C-alpha cells in the first residue's frame, strides 16, 4: 500500500459511545477494545489480500484472528500523528475473520501533572481515537472496505488503571489490573461481541475548510520495532514456598542448558492458599521488553512484578541512590516501580490466565511476588518479549586490552537499549529524547551502522519543537515543554554531524531558516560587552551534571552570563557558517563568522583569569574555585584560542585537580578538543572512569560514574563507540573526506570495522617489537575508488583510492 495522501482517506476517527450514568471520561486514562468482523467466502483458488493503515490516540496493539501483531503508532507530537501500513494477507482465513485493536488513551491535560498524567513522551489530544483504513481484495478486485466507522464495535476495559511511582514519574505510572474485569478471547473471530456497542465517529480525517484536527497524519518515518521471545537466565534468590527453598545455599540458580541458553520458563511453581512467594530473576543483561506471566487458579491473589536495573542499598528515599556491585545481593534490594495483577482464577492447564503490561518495561532483574488468598496459585510460565529499534550494527572493535573490548560491548548494548521510536535518555526512568544526549547517540549510530533514519526523525522533531522566539525545546516529543538554551545549539551540531557524515545538502537546506532563528535568539541576548547574557528565569540554566553544580550550572551564572554559553554559541556559529557556505548562503556565512569573532573577543576581554591561561566560568566569578574544565574545553572548540595555545590550555586543564570536572558525556568534547590540538594520545589516560564501571558488573553504561547515579543505562556515556573508532582505529569522516589516523597509546594491536556513508572501512594495526626494533604494521580495506587519507604514526601522509592498504614502518624513534 503506497503512502496515503490526505484525500485518500475514507475512514473516520472512532471512539466508544459515552456510557450512561458515568461522568465524562476524557480526563482519565482509558483502555478500549475495538472489533471489525468480516467474512471471506471459501473456494478453490481464492486468494485474498488485506492492506491496512492504522493509527490511534494514544497507543494501539493490533490483532488479526487472534494473532498478536504490531504496536504503534510511532510517537508523534503536536504537529504530526504517524500511521503505519501493513500487508496482512498471511493472517486471513476462509470464513469469519476479525480485526481487533486494543487502544490506550492517556488523559490529555494542561497543565500537565508529572507522574499522574501518563508518559511524558507520548503525545495525546483531549479525546482518544482509532483510525483504520483497510481493504480486502482478490487479485485486483476490491472485495470489502473495512474502514473505521459506526460498523466497528467497541467496549471500554474497566480492569485497567495506572498507579504513579515518584521514582519514575516521567513514565506516568505502571499498571494495576483486575483480572475479574479482563475480557477473554476478544481478539478471536468466534468471540460473541453482541453486548458491545457500535463505535461513534469522532471526527473525519479532514474538512473542506482547512480546519485542522488534532491528528495531522504522516507515514511512519522509521522501521517497526522488533519483538523477540526471551527467557530469564538466572534465579537470583527467592522466599520458600511450603517451607522448601527454590535455591540452594543462598546461591543463585542457573536456568540454562549446556549451550548456555535459557532453558526454563519457570513452570510449575505452586503457591498454596494464604501463602506468599517471591522470586528475583535475572535476564542476564539490562533489557527492554514485555514481561509475560502465565498462571493457574489463584482467585483472590495479588501478583506484583517489580522492575529493577540492579541491586542497591535501601536508602528510604526515592531520590537518594547508593549503588555498588550491581549483582551483589548481600544486604541489597531491588528498587523500582511495579505492575500489579489480581487474578480472576479461571486459569486451567487448557487455558491459562496471563498478564502482560501494555507498554514495554526496562529491567535487568524482576521481582515476582505472589500473595495468595483463599485459593492456591500455580505459575505455569514467566518469560518476556524483548523489543527495540532494529539497529543492525556492522561496526566492530577489538584490541589487546580486554577492558576496552568489554567497554565496547557495553557501549553498543547501551545505545541499543536507548533506541525505540525515538532516541531516549534512559529507557527506565524517562524515555525522553533530549538534544544533548541525542546528538551523541546519532553519531554512535552512524559509526555502527550508517542507519540515519532515527536521526532524521530526531532532527525533524526538534525543528517541530521550535518556539516563536527561536528556542527549541530541550526534549521532544514531550507533552510538558522544557527549554534549556544550550541544548538548542546541539541541534545545529546534529545537522553539522550529519552533513559531515552523509554530505546531504538537501537536509541542510531544509533547516537553514530554523537554524538562523536559533542563533538569532542568542544574538538578541548579548550584553553590551558582547557576551550571551544569563539564562531567562523561565528556562533551565543547565550545562552538565557536576558535583559542584547541583542544578547543572555554576552558581556564579545565576545572575550573570555563563562563559561556556558564549563559547558554545561561538562554536555553533562556526558550524552554521560551514553549513550555510556549503549550501550557497555565503554572505550569511561570512556574517556568522564575524559574530563568532566578536563573541570570542568578548570572552578574551571579560572572562580570562588574570595571569593565567584559564577562563573563568563567568565574568562575575570571583573565587578561584569558579573555574571548570568545561569552559577551557569550549574555549578550544570555539576557536577562542588557537591550536598551539589550546594545547597548553588543555595540558593545564588536565593537571589542575581543582577544576569542576566534565561528566562522562561532556568528556566527548574534551576528546574533540584534544584531537583538534594534536593531543589525542592524552585521551588514553581518561578511560579509567569508564574502566571502573566494569568492576561493578554493569551490563550497560550508567548515567553518571558515581554511587548516587540514578540510571544504569544512559547512552550519552557510550563514548567508546566514537573514540575507539575515530581515535584508536583512526577512521574519521569529515566534509573534506575520510582520514585514517590510528592512535596506539599502550595498546599492542587493534582491529575493527567502521561504517561510513561510502561503505565499510576495515582497519587492523599492530605493534611488532623485536630486540631494539619497534615496527607499526597496518592494513585497511574500503570501497574501491574512494580516496582515503592515511596518516601513519611517523607522520607520513598518503592519499590512495586503491581500496586496500598494507604497510609496515619503523617507529622506534617516535613516541
Automatic annotation (TrEMBL):
Superkingdom of source: Bacteria
One of the protein's GO biological processes: carbohydrate metabolic process
Any Pfam family hit: Bac_rhamnosid_N
Transmembrane segments: none
Ranges for domain Alpha-L-rhamnosidase six-hairpin glycosidase: 395-604
SUPFAM superfamilies xref list: Galactose-binding domain-like, Six-hairpin glycosidases
Start and end residues of each Alpha-L-rhamnosidase C-terminal domain: 731-796
Record-annotated Bacterial alpha-L-rhamnosidase N-terminal domain positions: 52-204
Protein name: Alpha-L-rhamnosidase
Lineage: Bacteria, Bacillati, Bacillota, Bacilli, Bacillales
